[in-house]
Specification:
CATH class of the largest domain: Alpha Beta
Helix content: 10-25%
Number of strands: 8
Mean pLDDT: 90
Protein name: VOC family protein
GO molecular function, one term: metal ion binding
Low-confidence stretches: none
Number of helices: 2
CATH topology of the largest domain: 2,3-Dihydroxybiphenyl 1,2-Dioxygenase, domain 1
Distance between the termini: 31 Å
Keywords: Metal-binding
Strand content: 35-45%
Domain VOC: 6-129
CATH superfamily of the largest domain: 2,3-Dihydroxybiphenyl 1,2-Dioxygenase, domain 1
CATH architecture of the largest domain: Roll
Order of helices and strands: EHEEEEHEEE
InterPro entries: Fosfomycin_Res_Enzymes, Glyas_Bleomycin-R_OHBP_Dase, Glyas_Fos-R_dOase_dom, VOC_core, YwkD-like_dom
Length: 129
Protein backbone atom coordinates (compact mmCIF):
# COMPACT_ATOMS: atom_id res chain seq x y z
CA UNK A 1 0.00 0.00 0.00
CA UNK A 2 1.16 3.54 -0.73
CA UNK A 3 2.18 5.55 2.32
CA UNK A 4 1.21 9.19 1.80
CA UNK A 5 2.48 11.56 4.48
CA UNK A 6 0.53 14.77 3.77
CA UNK A 7 -0.43 17.13 0.98
CA UNK A 8 2.76 18.81 -0.22
CA UNK A 9 1.36 21.72 -2.26
CA UNK A 10 -1.28 22.92 -4.70
CA UNK A 11 -0.37 24.59 -7.99
CA UNK A 12 -2.45 27.45 -9.41
CA UNK A 13 -2.10 29.33 -12.69
CA UNK A 14 -3.00 33.02 -12.59
CA UNK A 15 -4.27 35.06 -15.51
CA UNK A 16 -2.79 38.22 -13.95
CA UNK A 17 0.26 37.27 -11.88
CA UNK A 18 0.66 40.59 -10.04
CA UNK A 19 -3.03 40.74 -9.10
CA UNK A 20 -3.02 37.15 -7.82
CA UNK A 21 0.29 37.62 -5.98
CA UNK A 22 -1.22 40.62 -4.16
CA UNK A 23 -4.41 38.69 -3.35
CA UNK A 24 -2.65 35.65 -1.89
CA UNK A 25 0.01 37.61 0.01
CA UNK A 26 -1.63 40.88 1.06
CA UNK A 27 -5.26 39.81 1.46
CA UNK A 28 -4.97 36.14 2.48
CA UNK A 29 -1.65 36.71 4.26
CA UNK A 30 0.39 33.85 2.79
CA UNK A 31 4.14 34.41 3.00
CA UNK A 32 6.55 34.26 0.08
CA UNK A 33 9.02 31.38 0.28
CA UNK A 34 10.65 32.13 -3.08
CA UNK A 35 9.86 33.81 -6.37
CA UNK A 36 11.52 33.03 -9.70
CA UNK A 37 11.13 34.16 -13.28
CA UNK A 38 11.64 31.36 -15.81
CA UNK A 39 12.65 33.12 -19.03
CA UNK A 40 12.45 29.99 -21.19
CA UNK A 41 8.73 29.75 -20.37
CA UNK A 42 8.03 33.48 -19.93
CA UNK A 43 6.61 32.39 -16.59
CA UNK A 44 6.73 33.42 -12.94
CA UNK A 45 6.66 30.84 -10.13
CA UNK A 46 5.82 31.99 -6.61
CA UNK A 47 6.04 29.57 -3.68
CA UNK A 48 3.73 30.50 -0.80
CA UNK A 49 3.48 29.27 2.79
CA UNK A 50 0.93 29.46 5.57
CA UNK A 51 2.29 29.47 9.14
CA UNK A 52 5.66 28.34 7.80
CA UNK A 53 4.23 25.39 5.86
CA UNK A 54 4.78 25.37 2.08
CA UNK A 55 1.31 25.32 0.56
CA UNK A 56 0.79 26.88 -2.88
CA UNK A 57 2.75 27.34 -6.09
CA UNK A 58 1.40 30.30 -8.05
CA UNK A 59 2.35 30.32 -11.73
CA UNK A 60 1.95 32.70 -14.63
CA UNK A 61 1.98 31.69 -18.28
CA UNK A 62 1.60 33.92 -21.34
CA UNK A 63 -1.97 32.95 -22.36
CA UNK A 64 -3.62 30.45 -20.03
CA UNK A 65 -7.16 29.40 -20.97
CA UNK A 66 -9.93 30.46 -18.57
CA UNK A 67 -11.68 28.07 -16.18
CA UNK A 68 -14.63 26.68 -18.14
CA UNK A 69 -17.21 26.39 -15.38
CA UNK A 70 -17.38 26.65 -11.62
CA UNK A 71 -17.51 25.18 -9.09
CA UNK A 72 -18.54 21.77 -10.43
CA UNK A 73 -15.98 21.55 -13.25
CA UNK A 74 -13.84 18.42 -13.39
CA UNK A 75 -10.66 18.93 -11.42
CA UNK A 76 -9.97 21.13 -8.43
CA UNK A 77 -13.28 22.31 -6.98
CA UNK A 78 -12.00 24.77 -4.37
CA UNK A 79 -9.32 25.55 -1.80
CA UNK A 80 -10.34 25.52 1.85
CA UNK A 81 -8.66 27.32 4.74
CA UNK A 82 -9.44 26.69 8.41
CA UNK A 83 -10.19 29.87 10.35
CA UNK A 84 -10.91 30.57 14.01
CA UNK A 85 -13.63 33.17 13.37
CA UNK A 86 -15.76 33.61 10.26
CA UNK A 87 -16.90 37.04 11.43
CA UNK A 88 -13.31 38.30 11.70
CA UNK A 89 -12.42 36.70 8.35
CA UNK A 90 -15.41 38.22 6.55
CA UNK A 91 -14.71 41.62 8.15
CA UNK A 92 -11.10 41.52 6.89
CA UNK A 93 -12.26 40.51 3.40
CA UNK A 94 -14.86 43.30 3.39
CA UNK A 95 -12.14 45.84 4.30
CA UNK A 96 -10.26 44.68 1.18
CA UNK A 97 -13.32 44.74 -1.10
CA UNK A 98 -13.48 40.94 -1.38
CA UNK A 99 -17.10 39.87 -1.31
CA UNK A 100 -18.13 36.64 0.37
CA UNK A 101 -21.17 34.43 0.15
CA UNK A 102 -23.58 34.27 3.08
CA UNK A 103 -22.28 32.13 5.93
CA UNK A 104 -23.68 28.59 5.83
CA UNK A 105 -23.57 25.64 8.22
CA UNK A 106 -22.17 22.24 7.21
CA UNK A 107 -25.08 19.83 7.66
CA UNK A 108 -22.78 16.97 8.71
CA UNK A 109 -20.38 18.70 11.10
CA UNK A 110 -22.41 21.69 12.28
CA UNK A 111 -19.42 23.94 11.42
CA UNK A 112 -19.89 27.26 9.65
CA UNK A 113 -18.26 28.23 6.34
CA UNK A 114 -18.31 30.74 3.51
CA UNK A 115 -16.82 31.11 0.05
CA UNK A 116 -15.04 33.84 -1.89
CA UNK A 117 -13.37 33.82 -5.29
CA UNK A 118 -9.72 34.50 -6.06
CA UNK A 119 -8.92 36.96 -8.88
CA UNK A 120 -9.45 34.19 -11.47
CA UNK A 121 -12.72 32.94 -10.02
CA UNK A 122 -11.27 29.94 -8.15
CA UNK A 123 -13.60 29.26 -5.21
CA UNK A 124 -11.93 29.59 -1.80
CA UNK A 125 -13.69 28.31 1.30
CA UNK A 126 -13.13 29.55 4.86
CA UNK A 127 -14.17 26.84 7.32
CA UNK A 128 -14.55 27.75 10.98
CA UNK A 129 -12.80 25.30 13.34
Amino acid sequence: MISLLRLHHLALIASDYARSKRFYTEILGLSVVREAYRAERDSWKLDLALNGEYLIELFSFPTPPPRLTRPEATGLRHLAFAVASLEATVAWLDQHAVGSEPIRTDEFTGRRFTFIQDPDGLPIEFYEV
